[in-house]
Predict the structure.
Amino acid sequence: MTNWQLHSSATAANPSIFESTYILLSKYQVNNKAEVFAFIDENPFLLPLLLETQKKIEVYFRNSLVYLEMETDPELAPEPRLLAIISPSCPPEEAFAKFSLFSREWWLDTAMTRTQNKLHIRVEYR
């Protein structure tokens, strides 16, 4: 069975996987789709978490682009991890305040309990 057949049968059996992937692509900027989606496939708990995370980011950073990328620098992280990079549309001081609030109100607790150190978020102007 080819990868396409496996994917087709998986989406036919669970259409929410296809719908969730479509929503993910509409909410995040993903440059290396194959690498990012292979990582999500290896860590399926990330898909619903990414959908929830995007909604939370939108509350604090309205109209800002959010990128998904792999981080594979062994000096920063011994194992590969997914980065959600918020590119804010507001000035740096405001972005810092918003990210601090986002972190305190939602992200830090979520990161400690649900990410398994596979997902990190940062702010970066692009």
About this structure: The first helix runs from residue 3 to 13.
